[in-house]
Amino acid sequence: MSLSKVLETVRGAEVFSLSAGIGIFFNVILVWYVVEYYRDPLHLRRFPAAHPTAGFSAAWTMVHCWKLKRFWGIHKAHERVGPIVRIQPDHVSFNVGEAIEEIYGHGKDLTKAPFYDTLASYQRSMFDTTDRAEHGQKRKYVAHMFAPMTVKNLEDVVVDTTKSLFRVFDRYADMKQPEWLNMRHWISMYAFDIIGDLGFGEKLGCLQRGDDIMKAQTRKGKIYDVSGMRGVYDGGAYNVFWGQASSFLKWTKWMTQWTTGRFFADAFFDVAIYLVKRRVPAEDVAEYEKNRRFDLFQRLVIDKKGKAMDLEFEELFAEAAVLMIAGSDTSGTGLCNTILYLAKHPDKLAKLQAEVDTAISPNTLVAKHDDVKDLPYLRACIDESLRLRPPNAQGLPRTVSKNGAMVQGYYMKPGTVVSVPTYSIHRNEKYFKNAEAFIPERWIDNPDEKEAYNLKKYVIPFSAGSRACIGRNLAYLELQVALASIVHRYSFELKDPHEDVEIFERFNSNPRDFYVKVNYRTPNVPAISS
């Protein structure tokens, strides 16, 4: 036999061996999943599964994450199967209002699930730490960042950035040949500019330029430009997708480190590094802060007495990244969705404008928070929008501790993951009449005492309990000031009033682009000062 034939034979054997090895590997995994399913260590076969594969692996939720529709897949599963659904081998979803207190309530012995590992960097932030003691420690120095008085001191930033948004809207309103304005895009630019200035005293300039390009910096000091939106969207989608199989994160993230999703997941963290490096110089921090304008990040650098907090840079990076993402995406999405619903319901918009006009003088450009914070219909419009399109639509997962837990009469063994799907509970007809409809009036003097109670207890756009969103005070200040000022000055006409604007889910859930014509409400609107 010739050497070439010998080599071909050997090569064929190698290929066969490699193929056989791969086949054996995946068959072993499959057998392991099947054995675990029938062994049922968490006693979860008693619950109906969202899909035949959901009891075996995370494949079902990963498919829906790939489509950016995990919340929707779970919502339809609850409609099809019932209020309690097994969505992963170790994860049960409860579309039951009473389960909110049982899972997320204060004093409950459940911790954040390993899913949050996908969001963590070298150092854990208050948001993604799964350790209860560590969370309590971090919350002590993060909480005062968002105290009501702290937030109130930054209202001027919201006012100034809202003026910048109005310059954009005015350009469209002044056009002789009106063009359609992409509301989702411009509100996103607005949200980035607000959190850049509120959080770090940094003028990102997104509204002025019309784009979301930001500076990022690697740990080695390389500075580069990156899209902020793709950092939030593509990076978020990447993290959430692989977070469905949290046990394999070490391997999946290593194998996908060259992908676009991984690049943007890391890049947005690099944006935080750039902001922190600019924000905290090498010289004495406490002395430097004396001459700076106050911003949220200052509360991570010095305490109330002006003494340096001495947090490690990695910890500052971690908290800064959360501040950027949560501070922009949550409030921006909430404002965008509320404008969408009001544009779809001109009667509701007119009712809100009438209320706002009683609180703001015709010559006022941007409202003061004190003038609008107690307007009932303004708050009702925001809350109803947050009910129908919560910025975070998925059920935030919690792990049962070593002591076990009772959820809806079922004993859940240690290690079981449980959640309440926010989107689904908010649209549950058991708790809300005409649950799919935008009805702000339901929030004001509701004669149905049961529904009024449910609105207070089961609408959880900022989650619930001790690990609820710590920045809700800031979010409501932004939403109330911005929305009141916008509807006071403008009216909107949707390009397609009957279009059902689709929701895409990464970690948060965002509307896709939608377009409006911008019109002044009166011919003599107050001018915007430079």
Automatic annotation (TrEMBL):
Belongs to the cytochrome P450 family. The chain crosses the membrane at residues 15-35. This is Cytochrome P450 monooxygenase. It comes from the Eukaryota. Its cofactor is heme. It comes from Amorphotheca resinae ATCC 22711. The keyword Metal-binding applies. InterPro entries: Cyt_P450 (IPR001128), Cyt_P450_CS (IPR017972), Cyt_P450_E_grp-I (IPR002401), Cyt_P450_sf (IPR036396), Cytochrome_P450_monoxygenase (IPR050121). Pfam families: p450.
